[in-house]
Amino acid sequence: MTMVLPKYLPERYHRPVWHLGEQFDEVMLASLRPGMRILDLGSGRGPALWPKDRPPGTTYAGLDISLSELQAAPAGSYDEMYQADATTRTPELEGRFDLIVSFQVFEHVKPLDVAFENMRAYLKPGGRAIVQMSATWSVFGMINQVVPQSLAVWMLRKATGRSKESVFPAPYHKCSNSALEEILRPWSEHEIRPLYLGADYFKFFGPLARAYVVYENWAMRGGHRNLASHYLVIAVK
Ligand SMILES: C[S@@+](CC[C@H](N)C(=O)[O-])C[C@H]1O[C@@H](n2cnc3c(N)ncnc32)[C@H](O)[C@@H]1O
Fold it and tell me: What fold is seen in the domain 11-136+171-236?
């Protein structure tokens, strides 16, 4: 489906169509091989990779703190389901996965460093993690941290039209470029890609969205990585 975007949104919002997970999907699809064991961390009702897109022989496990979120996913989404907190080590998952994917989950997780260490433990040697999260120092991240949760949910619903059920508490713990650099030290390789794609939260009021884009362009062009709206992390055990 092609979405018509306001003209004031810069080129990066248009390539090829606006979709927050576009770069995440690109990296994930390029990482797939037949016979992989994949863990989707915080997959809830929406696995990052739908069954039709999985290579032959894939085993796809979903892990989420909420069993009801996992059960709300379309039938056939998961070969295995684990109800667990990302910050609590699940020994049976250790060393079992070639690939871990996690889309828009880690802003909800605290302590984030513990979740990354668990993820590293769940990978086989040489296994890869692909994670996208919202950023601590994004404008909406900062608003979310200072206003009460009920007001944050109301604002997010108003701004983006999301349902109440799709908004989860978000502490935004250590979701910044500098904190992630520290957290990723034990990994053998890593890339942190800052994304500057936060205008969606302000689209309910054009002048505000325009002002936001001016700020975001400044942050991006100035290389202020800690002010990104989201991070895409690619890390190898
Ligand atoms: C915004 S939803 C994203 C779901 C899915 N990844 C997607 O893209 O549709 C966040 C998910 O993270 C889960 N979650 C929140 N905190 C978690 C934690 N500490 N450990 C594991 N899952 C968690 C929620 O239950 C929810 O399913």
Answer: Rossmann fold (3.40.50)
